[in-house]
Write a structure and sequence with these properties.
Layout: E1 11-15, H1 27-41, E2 45-51, H2 58-63, E3 65-74, E4 77-88, E5 91-97, H3 99-102, H4 113-130, E6 138-142, H5 148-156, E7 167-172, E8 180-182, H6 184-190, H7 196-202, E9 203-205, E10 208-210, H8 211-218, E11 221-224, H9 227-232, H10 236-239, H11 243-248, E12 253-255, H12 283-295, E13 306-310, H13 319-331, E14 335-339, H14 344-357, E15 361-364, H15 369-378, E16 381-384, H16 394-400, E17 404-408, H17 411-416, E18 430-432, H18 437-453, H19 455-466, H20 472-486
Parallel strand pairs: 1-2, 1-6, 2-5, 6-7, 7-11, 11-12, 13-14, 13-16, 14-15, 16-17, 17-18
Antiparallel strand pairs: 3-4, 4-5, 8-10, 9-10
Helix pairs in contact: 1-20, 4-5, 5-8, 12-15, 13-14, 13-18
This protein binds adenosine-5'-diphosphate.
Adenosine-5'-diphosphate binds at residues 26-27, 310-312, 339-341, 367-369, 372, 391-394, 397.
């Protein structure tokens, strides 16, 4: 029986290449900005570490305090690294400073991204050794940019007392991006060429190495952002070449559905929507729809189901199905509004439909956060026929606003949307299973039929969707279970509170 001396908070260092509100290009930024705070509420001592990018707003840069500086060995180089700190709403953020690597106009897309994030990962390991306040029990790494941390820790830092009981968790947010580079990096930057185990596990073909593969092989626990994606990653169709590793390590792979920031996404208090409403009083949602139709130049007609799509216009999002089915959907008198930016051919296609269908179809090719709020509030249906979707936030946001999602059964879409069951009346949205435009259109027109013929039932589904709990509390408790599984010698400080 462990003594009470072992009851303490686990120290979690959350390593991420982006975190809201400092830097964001996708879902990872949202997760890193929200989950660590939820971990604190769940009884951990959590902090976040990310690069000090040149794009971080000045107001935050002004408030950062210098904590430490040292040199990071990168093969034959010794590279300067500063550690700065900023406390924001009770959470400590640490920034890795090296202007040559990070003082640029964007986050990614540079010729030396491999070197930049190898440096970032190594700097995190050095910081754990050299900066006492960064001592941790669990280093939680995210995507390829921090995937080398588990490799470095095991191969190069095992001897350091600050590191020998640090466990690593590796979370996959999107397996499409893996950090694959020429193998010259092994000797020239990583300094791992003489370590056979590291070499073997980093190689992905005869002359390339893969950062993500290294992280997946070396981490003590693997997670991804939904249970279904955890299962899919083990299949060749979704695994992007790494499915054998997910199969081999499936016993330590867990899928945990992301949450959303329910204080931002709340139709009752949202200052960006036309009129506030809640599950207790839905009346104003109709006004949100009318105002959205007006704003987008659509016919102001409450009897038309308004289908909205919000997201990146890329192949991942299943836009081919929408393009194929568009004429058929339009013929049935349904309105469609799309907000997004992305691949040029996709943007062009939706501009064409916008022209063709006048006041029944609108394509806004833009990134517009305020408009996205008004679309979540004003729509009747959110369409998300993704080819793959690790988690997906839009469908969860839509449900908060009583806009019923219609999704393909994949990844987090499958895990978050309960399909309408005409026998029991259960459901928070609609689902179809195959990447098939006719199947999608049938499901969509079936949903519209329900909208036209049974408003009472429609309202019931809206209320069921709005009542679903998408807060981070549930996810944070699941991560705590994993951390504590890696540290059985530490008794949990707070019991799970959601059971
Ligand atoms: P992904 O991470 O694959 O881009 P998600 O559904 O997980 O997709 O998250 C997308 C987030 O970005 C959502 O919050 C969505 O509202 C927002 N978003 C995407 N495109 C736009 C846009 N053009 N304008 C405003 N918000 C957008």
């Amino acid at each position: 029986m462990p003594t009470s001396a072992h009851r303490r908070k686990l120290r979690i260092l959350f390593a991420s290449s982006e975190a809201v509100p400092f830097a964001k290009t996708g879902g990872l930024g949202d997760v890193a900005g929200s989950l660590p705070r939820a971990l604190k509420h769940a009884g951990a001592k959590a902090a976040v570490i990310l690069p000090k990018y040149g794009t971080i707003p000045q107001e935050y840069r002004d408030r950062m305090k210098h904590v430490a500086d040292f040199y990071v060995p990168l093969a034959w180089r010794n590279v300067y690294c500063g550690i700065e700190k900023l406390e924001l709403q009770g959470l400590d953020f640490y920034f890795v400073d090296n202007e040559a690597y990070f003082k640029r106009d964007g986050l990614y897309g540079y010729f030396d991204d491999g070197e930049r994030f190898a440096f970032f990962s190594k700097a995190i390991c050095e910081a754990i050794v050299k900066v006492p306040e960064l001592a941790c029990d669990v280093l939680h790494c995210n995507d390829w940019q921090t995937a080398l941390c588990p490799v470095f820790l095991r191969e190069l830092y095992r001897g350091a007392p600050q590191c020998n009981n640090v466990k690593t968790v590796m979370t996959v947010h999107n397996i499409k991006f893996q950090g694959q580079y020429g193998d010259k990096m092994l000797s020239d930057i990583l300094g791992l060429a003489d370590i056979p185990a590291a070499r073997d596990q980093l190689y992905c073909d005869k002359d390339s190495i893969n950062f993500m593969k290294g992280g997946l092989c070396y981490a003590d626990a693997l997670t991804t952002v939904s249970p279904s994606y955890a299962y899919e990653l083990q299949m060749p169709f979704y695994g992007e070449g790494l499915d054998p590793i997910f199969r081999r390590r499936s016993n330590i792979l867990t899928g945990i559905l992301n949450g959303i920031d329910t204080s931002i996404w709340n139709p009752k208090t949202d200052g960006m929507i036309t009129a506030n409403y809640s599950a207790d009083d839905l009346a104003n949602k109709a006004e949100c729809k009318r105002a959205l139709q007006e704003e987008l130049g659509l016919r102001q007609d409450p009897t038309r189901p308004l289908v909205v799509m919000i997201g990146r216009l890329t192949n991942q999002k299943g836009l081919g199905l929408v393009r194929y089915a568009m004429d058929g959907i339009m013929r049935r008198g349904v309105q469609v509004a799309i907000l997004g930016t992305g691949d040029a051919d996709q943007e062009e296609a939706f501009r064409y439909f916008d022209q063709k269908y006048g006041d029944m179809m609108c394509a806004r090719i833009a990134f517009d956060n305020a408009l996205s709020h008004r679309m979540y509030a004003g729509g009747d249906i959110l369409l998300m026929p993704s080819e793959f979707e690790p988690c997906g936030l839009s469908q969860m946001i839509a449900m908060r606003y009583g806009t019923l999602p219609l999704v393909r059964e994949t990844g987090g879409l499958r895990d978050s949307v309960v399909p309408y069951n005409k026998f029991t009346g259960e459901g928070t949205g609609f689902r179809f299973s195959n990447m098939n435009a006719d199947e999608m259109a049938d499901t969509l027109l079936g949903a519209c039929e329900l909208f036209w013929t049974n408003q009472e039932l429609w309202t019931k589904l809206m209320l069921q969707a709005m009542a679903t709990d998408f807060s981070w509390r549930r996810a944070a408790n699941d991560y705590m279970d994993i951390y504590h599984g890696l540290h059985p010698e530490v008794i949990r400080y707070n019991k799970r509170r959601d059971r």
